[in-house]
Amino acid sequence: MSRAQAESVIKNIIREIAQECASKGQAVSETLVAFMVKAVVLNPDNSFNVDRTLTKDDVQKLIKICVDRLLDSRSPSLDTIKMQVYFDMNYTSRSDFLEEHRRVLDQRLQPVLREITDSRARTREELDSLYRKIVSAILLRSGLGSPTDIAVVREATAALQSVFPQTELGTFMSLVKRDKERQLNELTLIVTGIRLFNKDCGKGGEGIDDLPAILNEAIPATTLNLDDDINKTCSIAFKYTSLIEAIHQGQIKEGPPLYLLIDSSINSRQHESFLRTLRNDVISCAQHVEQLQNQLAARLEQLQATVQSKTAVPTAQVYPQFISLSHIWNGFQDEMVLLSVLSNIMTSLEPFTRNHREMFTDDIFSPLLNGIQVKTDEERLSERTGSEDVIDDKAHNDFDWLFPDTTKNFDRLPLQYRGFCGVSLVNFDRLLLPTNSAIGVLHYNDKYYSFTSKEAAYEFITNPDHFIAMVAEAAKKSPELIQLLELHTQFASITPYSQGKDASKMIEKPITKCEMGTQTDTHLVESNIAKSYEWNEWELRRKAIKLANLRTKVTNSQQTNLSNMRRDNITQVYLPKEQSSQTKKAGYSIVPRSQTYLVGLRGGCSVTTEMTKVDLTVDVDQT
After folding, report:
1. What is the pTM assigned to this prediction?
2. What sign does the CA torsion over 261, 267, 273, 278 have?
3. Paired residues of 400 in beta bridges
């Protein structure tokens, strides 16, 4: 089956599942259905083989399982997946939020701006109408008051006339469309700055809300609501964790199903994670608002010093300050939008936690937790803070261990499994226990692993690949763990929901990537290009006509005075050769060698030996 056919089959499966759910009164998005299909196929309990083509029976089985899971209204696991889908489809970075907000605002203003830029006003009435449209566009873009409020319109018109009188409309009409839009944007900033300055002076400000004061009240209130929700969610998560531990230790023989407690625990931990993300963004909003307030006070003070009740001020001095003041106010408006979006997301997350809270109320928890100590995450960490609880890296020096005292930026290490212990996930069937990074962090295969205790760390290093693979198997049973524990690198086919908008791409094998390099010749095959080749028939005809005309032509040549009797000259010279001279001849003299002969050493007839010395040296004259 080709890729196009496979995608068509997957689209049909997703569409059929969505239609069947809708027919049973449950509306689901294609993104949620697509993820559910992936999760069902990945779960080994469902016996789907990714490597072979799904048969007709497999497709029917897949559709039935997906529909059953999507229609299970009391499933905490499904609630967690829905919560993840909602959060990833509605939450993005701060810059993306603001960029999308500005894009939507510009799109809504396009019809008004188009009427102004495309206007061909000629009569006085038409020019008056065009000027009123410019005032309305400035009010709509600045967000300072309603264009239907007469007092706001009068104030905005007076501010606009001070910088752009109606007599300038003729010049404005002669501009091209892009220059018109640029001038409208600049006029909006200047008029907004003038109105804000007048409001600060107490001479205007109709319809302008006190955004700094509103933000100073809204941010603490939102932070307080988030802290309250986080505390409630954490309290429930601690109870689930203590119950699951007690069941594994045999302290509770009868109780609710273990899988429901595990799914509810995962739901609570995911809700807590999302709430903390929102809280960090609210804190960031508070910091930006504080900076904007300081900038606003400094800019208004500088404007007061520039104007100082003068009747006329050079535009080159005051206009840039009005534009800067407008930009600062736009920053307050952005913070209001961002805070509103974060509050809406926080409110929308609560229904996804309602099912397990209704199933496990305080009346059900109380008898189950009788005699069981419910520990918070902080209490678990404080139990193992002594020196005897720290990992002994010298005894296990085969691995790379990191500690707070010896590692720079230790608190910023990207811990695997979002700070939960992988050993507990495997040994206690997906139990989420927070790790204690103070006892040491394992650096293995460019990833960082922390553990609840040194015993868990020692157990992990006996076979790290086994534990990593078993965590992935646990995530196949509970697909919501893929998002919670950030296991997307291990599941190449499961992408974050916000990136998986193409629902047709279901299950794909992970692509193994590696760095490779190749080297080729610049020109592997010698190029033969005929410069005289022509493909155009008319060009060939033109050349043929030129050749035919040449037959009737005569070639003439002329010689000028400058070229008369001139030729190319070549001169040959003989380079000097190497020579040598001798001034004196070599001479020498021979000195005779001295020779002496001793006679009588061999003895003779006489009793005593008589030796005679004979000098045989040749005289110098005889040599």
Report:
1. 0.73
2. negative
3. 443
